[in-house]
């Protein structure tokens, strides 16, 4: 292959799939050499999750063309790959990789050669980093572009060779790498991605260099500070904002912390920064536009992989930030299911690993996550973790299961008790109809409020409070002792007060508890035990 125009849709699809496989194989080894900018042992994992999001976006494009006879345009597939990486970018290196893919999509989408695409990618990534440092993924990307431009007739293999040579040089460029005797972890991940591109184009996989130098075993690891003395938090969020607002945001965040990377464009950005004041970093995003999918990690918690294993943990999928806080307070490891974006199996596996327990109870809290959760549980079992998957179908069932969890009793007994509590909880949710359609309760119109009980539409109403009251009547007709209400952030407190009063007046022996779920897909979740 001589140039980027030969990257047809099928080749891009293969590249993305092979990159995900390569990072899956290399993830732990890359995590093990992660010493810069923070020695938190997650660079390989972050790159894997970033590419997993990219792969999902690519497959969605192909799925949309299944009924047709032609493949999607390669430019559309490349843009989907870059967009998927952008919205799923994790950590410093994952965010930079997303910007590299964006640069390639821009140039190849315009018909440029691969060498020009790599040059644009390297330049765009460097511009995204507030204070570029040599000896990192940026150096490896730049060397790949240089080599491709020098050998345009064999740009793919030349880019890989250039990146490999640059990676070998990183310990001499960055003192912290030299002291640890390792190459840059982000650069090593990029080499795996470029190796996947070589394989997708030529059918021959290059042999990745062995990671001969690794850090000490986990028990001996210590968390090193960031380069400027050690901010306490990593803050990442997606941001909807215009270019001018993002320029101001960069200036403000650069004063708050370090490791600042802002990638994206066309109104959607991924913001990554290390700070001591996480609240201020989020507030800056609010002033710039609309931040969402906010992730805040305290670097002390990143040492979880280095501590003594605990005996048992619970991993629970939650639909909103409010329930995430509730479940975390109860000792569970949480995975946030954002509206329209269910977690992938890799994200569940990482949560199980982060729990760092010999035994794990997994609560997916969604019928749609049944197969995803089963795959994650199976993967974790191959790594020596005893995993019990309780097939909870709603968040209120997960809350009920977590309420009876007792880590000190035998694992099997705990799982049985949690399963029984979940099974004894009927669940409902309210949704707003997007269009006219047939339902099991009759014909609904766009804007109608639907009350789904145990997954089926049972009530069609005009507003949330009245529909909820009808749903509660039907659920409590079969008896119950406790009603759980989970309200989305946009639902006013008056609705909760009205429903609490309604239950109290009509069912004297029934208690009601109310939680705020935050930003979630349903305005109201209901559980009856």
Count of DSSP H/I helices: 18
Alpha-carbon Rg, integer? 25 Å
Number of strands: 16
Let me know the largest β-sheet. Answer: 6 strands, mixed
The chain-level structural class is alpha/beta
Strand order of the largest sheet: 13-12-9-16-14-15
Write down the overall mean pLDDT: 85
**Gap between N and C termini, in Å?**
63 Å
Considering DSSP H and I runs of 4 or more, what fraction of the residues is helical?
40-55%
Q: Shape from CA axes?
A: globular
Low-confidence blocks of residues: 1-5, 212-228, 301-307
Beta-strand percentage? 15-25%
What is shown here, in short?
The protein is of the alpha/beta class and 529 residues long. Helix content is 49%, strand content 19%. The strands form 4 sheets. Strands 13-12-9-16-14-15 form a 6-stranded mixed sheet, with helices on both faces. Strands 2-3-1-4 form a 4-stranded antiparallel sheet, sandwiched between helices. Strands 6-5-7-8 form a 4-stranded parallel sheet, sandwiched between helices.
């Amino acid at each position: 292959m001589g140039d980027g125009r030969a990257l047809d849709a099928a080749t891009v699809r293969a590249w993305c799939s092979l990159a995900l496989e390569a990072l899956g194989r290399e993830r732990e080894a890359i995590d093990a050499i992660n010493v810069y900018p923070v020695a938190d042992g997650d660079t390989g994992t972050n790159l894997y999750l970033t590419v997993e999001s990219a792969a999902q976006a690519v497959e969605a494009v192909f799925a949309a063309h299944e009924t047709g006879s032609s493949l999607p345009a390669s430019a559309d597939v490349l843009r989907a790959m870059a967009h998927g990486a952008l919205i799923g970018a994790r950590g410093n290196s994952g965010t930079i990789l997303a910007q590299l893919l964006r640069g390639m999509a821009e140039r190849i989408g315009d018909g440029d050669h691969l060498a020009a695409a790599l040059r644009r990618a390297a330049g765009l990534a460097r511009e995204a980093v507030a204070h570029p440092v040599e000896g990192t993924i940026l150096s490896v990307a730049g060397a790949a572009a240089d080599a491709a431009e020098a050998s345009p007739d064999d740009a793919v293999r030349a880019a890989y060779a250039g990146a490999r040579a640059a990676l070998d040089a990183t310990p001499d460029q960055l003192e912290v790498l030299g002291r640890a005797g390792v190459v840059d972890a982000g650069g090593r991940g990029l080499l795996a991605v470029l190796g996947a591109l070589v394989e997708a184009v030529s059918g021959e996989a290059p042999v990745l260099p062995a990671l001969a130098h690794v850090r000490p075993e986990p028990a001996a690891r210590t968390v090193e500070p960031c380069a400027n003395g050690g901010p306490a938090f990593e803050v990442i969020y997606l941001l909807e904002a215009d270019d001018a607002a993002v320029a101001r945001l960069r200036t403000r965040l650069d004063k708050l912390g370090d490791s600042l990377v802002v990638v994206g464009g066309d109104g959607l950005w991924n913001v990554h920064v290390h700070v001591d004041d996480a609240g201020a970093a989020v507030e800056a995003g609010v002033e710039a536009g609309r931040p969402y999918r906010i992730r805040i990690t305290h670097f002390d918690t990143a040492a979880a992989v280095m501590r003594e294993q605990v005996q048992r943990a619970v991993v629970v999928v939650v639909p909103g930030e409010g329930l995430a806080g509730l479940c975390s307070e109860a000792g569970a490891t949480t995975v946030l299911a954002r509206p329209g974006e269910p977690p992938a199996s890799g994200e569940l596996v990482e949560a199980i690993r982060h729990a760092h327990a010999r035994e794990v109870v997994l609560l997916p809290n969604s019928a749609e996550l049944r197969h995803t959760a089963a795959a994650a549980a199976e993967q974790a079992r191959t790594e020596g973790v005893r995993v019990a998957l309780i097939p909870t179908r709603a968040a209120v069932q997960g809350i009920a299961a977590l309420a009876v969890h007792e880590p000190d009793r035998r694992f099997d007994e705990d799982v049985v008790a949690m399963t029984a509590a979940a099974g004894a909880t009927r669940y409902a949710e309210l949704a707003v109809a997007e269009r006219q359609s047939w339902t099991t309760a009759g014909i609904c119109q766009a804007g109608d409020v639907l009350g789904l009980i145990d997954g089926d539409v049972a009530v069609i109403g005009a507003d949330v409070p009245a529909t909820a009251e009808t749903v509660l009547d039907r659920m409590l007709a079969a008896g119950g002792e406790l009603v759980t209400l989970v309200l989305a952030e946009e639902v006013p407190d008056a609705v909760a007060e009205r429903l609490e009063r309604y239950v109290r007046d009509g069912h004297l022996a029934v208690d009601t508890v109310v939680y705020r779920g935050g930003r979630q897909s349903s305005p109201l979740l209901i559980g009856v035990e």
